[in-house]
Amino acid sequence: MRKEVAAEPARDPDRYLIQRGGVFYYHRRMPAKMVGIDDRGRFIRKSLETDERRLARAMRDKLEDADKTLWAVLLSGGETRSALDQYRDAVRRAEAMGVSYLSNGQVAGFHNVDSILKRVEALERVQAAPAVADALLGGVRVPPVKISEAFDVYANEIMAHEVVGKSQSQRRMWKKVKQRAINNFVALIGDKSIGEITREDGLAFYRFWLRRVAPPPEAGPATHSASAGNRDLGNMRDLYRRYFAHLGEEQKGTPFDDLRFSERGKRRRKRPSFETKWIIDQIMKPGALESLDPQARRCVLALIETGARPSEICNLDETVIFIDTLVPYIRISPREDAHDPREIKTEWSVRDVPLVGVALEVFKKNPQGFPRYRNREEALSANLNKFFKTNKLFPTPKHKIYSLRHSFEDRMKEGGIDSELRKILMGHTIERVEYGSGGSLQWRHDELKKIALPFDPEIV
Fold first, then answer.
1. Quick one: residue 77, left, alpha or beta (phi over 0 = left, psi -120 to 50 = alpha)?
2. Is 189 exposed, middle or buried (CB count within 10 Å of its CB: 0-12, 13-18, 19+)?
3. In what order do the strands lie in the sheet with 23-29?
4. 3-state SS, one letter per residue, for 279-325
5. Where in the chain is the domain with CATH 1.10.443.10?
6. Model pTM?
7. By C-alpha distance, which of 199, 210, 265 is closest to 232?
8. pLDDT < 70 stretches in the chain
9. What is the per-residue pLDDT across 118-166, written as a single tens digit (0 to 9) for each?
10. How far is CA 66 from the centre of its chain?
11. Distance between CA atoms of residues 56 and 281, nearest Å
12. C-alpha triplet 299, 304, 307: angle, nearest 5°
């Protein structure tokens, strides 16, 4: 008979957090086994200097990890770990003791006697293992770390707060863009120690991109935009600067400083929109989308009449789809579920969009959204772009599924819809002080009905 395994209880997402005067604090009782060893008192309390819960949770995680590392060493009296792990643990131990980690040379160069005494007094508060003394007095040297290893620290530790609130797919995309710079640099220069990167390496990487951004006439046209090169150079610059700041090593600059390409005169490429006649006669023609799976097909139809981004449509769920109301609508907003969070593009992207035409019929059939594509917006876009291309539903090779969003905006302009309402419904920035709510849902609904397209119910 198979033995049932009890599920591990969920951890409190707000453990060790208290809020006083709007500011969050890291607050926890000293474990009984550490009393008399770690003499910071019965309670450990440190201001996180933020009133934002998500940021406080990320900072709490670092302090919780620092205490765990410190206590493990205090109890064991020693360790056998890699040079990088030992150095990173030294940084954590110093943080747990209330000081920043400094190298041996930096400690020796201190002119502030009070700062040195603070470190010595911290040692007296605990039954100090040698590793703790090393952490406080700079006895662990900065180890050579390959660029790829430094990037792992950058992505998983230094910038952990950046991905708080992102979904798994958003985290993957965030990392993918930055990983490209690392891959390109390693392919060109090699996976050398990040501390050994020279200015010449930075210039070689600049020239690598120069050949793609502004090649000589005999080499043919550019293959990449200036912004693509600047993105890679900027990501390498950010990795270098943040990595050494994280280690407590003072850096006067990076090998990538002042290396960028001018984007002046750059003409922003705008995706072409579908003509309204093409949408009606080709895309909404009965049978045109019949071989698509039902959820993908309905996503397309919802895009036509809401102007939403594909990632916004496929991540809606029953909590933000309102059908049984006087004015049916969808609410596009961040998902703050601790187990399944999701960011949206900007604060202006938060909006309520009334449902008219074919979009209303879509959500009547899918009141819980499109679970097949939830957190899989890349798969949805790839699936739809491939289907449209194969079935000749794109008027030109430059058209993409995202072009439906531009078509919605064009239709609103042609329908005489107020410019500010257009920005609200598109989730675009309004460049003035915000007053009011942007008009009632009923008014928005009545305006959108003016541009709703005729459709055969069979296509839904």
1. left
2. middle
3. 17-20, 23-29, 43-47
4. HHHHHCCCCCCCCCCHHHHHHHHHHHHHCCCHHHHHCCCCCCEECCC
5. 276-459
6. 0.59
7. 210
8. 1-10, 39, 70, 73-74, 76-143, 248-251, 265-269, 336-348, 430-439
9. 555 554 444 444 444 444 444 455 567 899 999 998 998 888 887 877 8
10. 24
11. 53
12. 95
**Residue 38 identity:** D
Task: Report how far residue 312's alpha carbon sits from residue 444's, in angstroms, rounded to the nearest whole number.
Answer: 19
Tell me: the pLDDT tens digits for 367-410?
Answer: 999 999 998 998 999 999 999 999 999 999 999 999 999 999 99
Rounded Cα distance between 257 and 254, Å, is 6
Structure confidence at residue 284 (pLDDT): 97
Integer CA distances (angstroms), 48 to 27, 89, 237, 422, in order: 10, 21, 28, 40
How many residues belong to the chain? Answer: 460
Task: Specify the residue for token string 């990088």.
Answer: 84
Residue 87 structure tokens: 């150095």
Please write the tens of the pLDDT for every residue from 279-312.
Answer: 999 999 999 999 999 999 999 999 999 999 999 9
Write the class of the CATH domain 276-459.
mainly alpha
Q: Are 148 and 179 in contact (CB under 8 A)?
A: no
Report CA-CA distances (Å) from 143 to 7, 82, 132, 193, 239. Answer: 40, 9, 18, 9, 17
The one-letter amino acid code at 444 reads: R
